[in-house]
Description:
The protein is built from 25 helices and 16 strands.
Amino acid sequence: xxxxxxxxxAAALILAASSAMAAETxxxxxxxxxxxxxEVLRYRVPDFENLSLDQKRLVYYLTEAAxxxxxxxxxxxxxxxxxxxxxxxAVYTGYKGDxxxxxxxxxxxxxxxxxxxNGIHHHYSMDKFAPAxxxxxxxxxxxxxxxxxxxxxxxxxxxxxxxxxxxxKRVNQADGQDLILTSANNMYEGVTQAEVEAYYAARKDTxxxxxxxxxxNTRVVKGADGRVHEQIYKLGGRYSDAIAHIxxxxxxxxxxxxxxxxxxxxxxxxxxxxxxxxxTFDDYSIRWAEDTASQVDFINGFIESYGDPLxxxxxxxxxxxxxxxxASARTETLSxxxxxxxxxxxxxxxxxxxxxxGVSAKVITAAILAGDAYPATPIGINLPNANWIRAxxxxxxVTLENITQAYDEASHGNGFNExxxxxxxxxxxxxxxxxxxxxxxxDLHECLGHGSGRLMPGVDPDALKAHGSSIEEAxxxxxxLYYLADPKLIELGLLDNPDAYKAEYYKYILNGLMTQLxxxxxxxxxxEAHMRNRQLIAAWAYEHGKKDKVIELVKRGGKTxxxxxxxxxxxxxxxxxxxxxxxxxxxxxxxxGAALIEKYAVKVDPKLHREVLSRYAHLDIAPYKGFxxxxxxxxxxxxxxxxxxxxxxxxxxxxxxxxxxxDYSGLK
Length: 668
Ligand code: ZN
């Protein structure tokens, strides 16, 4: 999985950070805005000041390149998103009436939602937003404006906003429907799913061991002649005006590259934007994956394909970041000891890897989030996506720790802890150790867990079929849980207290047995792979520890609480389940895997589910969160040479969105 998203407070990192960390940032206000189902936060960029002047210049031009791609994503998401946004922003900024008026306030909320989603469809559910202002009211406001780029398509925009039947879903993945015709995204035009599939089938060479990522940077359309063809995103092609600004800033950034390898990475990316050639993109990806020496790093381009129902075309995104050197020592220590962990894993020795290589993993500080990574953002990334490149040249796995820290700090005092954690000593344990053990859990899962173990000869890697990803995530989670409690982590200097692991154990069981249910609608089963994996582990441990009362669900004042009586035995249970899950994976035992999933991972206790939903509702915690970026300003001398770059955290959500629309509108 190439992207780890923080979805809801129940998912991870829900509770308070260590008091030491809070003390470092006494006056930083993490909360920026709250509307609909969204909370907008801000994040710090620690140690930006300590970068060298050339690194700051590099970061500055890369952040400029990042912001110039914004409009590409808006257009990819839906064909009328850009004129629609400009029309609504013109109404919003030009409004002369009473700003506390109900219609105006409804417009403001709608616009905030549209900004957050980079278009009119919810960023997670993909459903279209429903406005709470009237069509007549908006018509009257637009009529008072001078003409704009929305004028020629105003009827289409009005239909998109108000008619529920128009473009209801951005990405539709319902089985049995034409996924292209029923998806509102703008990566296809005038073609059916069958036509697109036939088009790509004819172009794919299944014997090619180093295949390019077909369709990654194109829009597939049917011409007037009835011929299906691709419009390429490149200079001189589709999105040329925005790409020209990106290339201009990448060119400026290149002058301040940290070394020749990184300069070549940027040069090849510019070549790719210039030619649109996918072989060039692969060459760029390989060089990028192999550049582990540079401190400053970035993603910029058409990367993840979740926005395309067929998973071909990449949505434009950018993240600029630099390595958090002290925190990366943690992942480097784990990678350096990968063989020790493999050799001591509680699985049948036949299923261990004789020779294991740790993944190149680092902890990074995000400097800017853009495109499809903004305002909602991943907390971990593993790229490149092409399987053959990963196998032959490796991949980079990163954790965005200043983002996870912001989530964590912002959750202070949201009441979750008090509502769901059983008692004050457990809350104190979580306060003290959850942030570090949660991060270590992610590190163990990513650096070692997925890479551990091996398949028996002749076993099909896809033998577990639809249950493959739940089982695989369970395997990596169990590996991490098992080792979190190992004295080895203290010996390696990664933890300083033999009881620290209990914080993660408590949170994991609480989440898996109870709190993650807040994301499930009443009456529904659990479907998402990560949620299944977490319930599988928690419910299996609950049941298998029952006779020893390892975990109990106790009632207090009519509410259910998780009580863990024996953490050592819980660790043994994690080890036993890891051994079984590894066997299932190594032998490709589909029957046993399916039985585990069906018994423990899918069904929900309706009574407990209702209870969790109602307790959660009282807390009013936003299910989705995202971020505003800090503002970077270049200080220049008389020749235009940057002499310093300053960072400013004070910009709020609405001003930031209006500024981006005004200053970085790359597409007309
Ligand atoms: Zn994973």
